[in-house]
Amino acid sequence: MEQLLHYVWKHKMFPLTGLKTTDGQEVEVIDPGLHNRNAGPDFFNAKVKIGGTLWVGNVEIHDRASDWFLHRHDRDPHYNNIILHVAESVDVDVKTKQGDYPPQMRLQVPASVREHYKELLTTEAYPPCYRIIPDLSRLMVHSWMSALQTERLEQKTEAIAQRVKDCDGSWEAAYFVTLARNYGFGINGDAFETWAKLIPLQNIAHHRDNLLQIEAFFLGQAGLLEEAALPERYQQKARQDGYFTQLESEYRYLAHKFGLRHMDAGLWRFLRLRPQNFPHIRIAQLARLYCEQRAGLSQLLECETVRQVQELLATQVTTYWETHYVFGEESARSEKRLSSASLNLLTINTVVPVLFAYGRHKDSGRLCGRAFDFLEALKAEDNHIVRMWRKVGLTVETAGDSQALIQLKKEYCDRKECLRCRIGYEYLKGSCAARRS
Length: 437
Description:
By secondary structure, the chain is of the alpha/beta class. Among the domains are: 2-109, no CATH class; 170-352 and 361-374, no CATH class. Helix content is 47%, strand content 10%. It has 18 helices and eight strands. It has helices at 2-10, 67-70, 111-122, 138-166, 171-183, 189-196, 201-204, 211-221, 232-239, 242-258, 279-291, 297-301, 306-313, 340-361, 365-377, 384-391, 399-413, 422-429, and strands spanning 27-31, 34-35, 43-50, 53-64, 82-89, 104-106, 324-326, 329-330. The strands form two sheets. Strands 1, 2, 3, 4, 5 and 6 form a six-stranded mixed β-sheet that branches. β2 and β3 form a beta hairpin.
């Protein structure tokens, strides 16, 4: 497997003595070079001593030497300066476009590395590297988790930057979309993002002092004021519900005024959803937050502590929704405030990424640092991914830890990217004794 051979070369996981070219010259690998994942030679600026002469240049690696011709490197001038061609099987001599014959060296993946890699790819237990985790050094784990935490924030920054672009450069609008998306708490995230992009914030700002109109605007754009969006058993009751008809009337007026088109209510998911997470409830909470001017980026940037953030975002429903989860059916009275767990998730998934992304945009180390401080101040999330890592021996205390481990599971373990993982590196090199059960 060529990818594994690249890995072995990059990390010098091979005997460093006794290496020879196919024509018998001694080889000493001083520096394997920089791994190139784009077009061109596999490793740039390697330092290799061949027959006592130091060469600095590029190295190309293949499973079989004949792959050189299969990949047409003999016709590509980018491969003219290859100082060494490495292959597990040297079945032919290779030639560059300018007619030179680069020295070749046979290099096999060590049997132990190949075996450990096969274990990582085929072991049914999850994560497959579980045996060595208790033996990992605290310094190595801390370093890797810090890198994963930053990597996760970088990914979220890209998503937020795309929202800014979609919102014609408005960070305020992009923050509202990000906040709304996370009000979906996973299940309705996509639907909430679709909905939020249909809310023209500049237009409705003129109606902010009228909570009824804002709620009508929000629910109407969600398609939830359409009779067809109601289950049949509620339709007649909703028609007799004065609040529903009042919202419907307000929305018709606003839709005509601003030329609005609402989203398809069929995008909302209700199956296996707890009533407090119904879109009606979450949208009512957002409407109140918006009317009280607590859903804007400028207000968020003024918060310097997690407590201030959560006081800013803490909200509840309007009076009607205290006794309803949907139109047409009453329920026991409840203020339906955002729970502390929900506020924590909103802080982790909305506030922290937005602060980090905006800090990058403004080149503000203060805002980026605040994002990391918030992650360290919050307790770790409690989900199946975090519980899995705890079970195999990793310490998970803060939200920074849990975000790092979510990144590790989704971007490395699930994709079998063990060759890019530092724990995978420890497993492959065998520096930690793999525990056999």
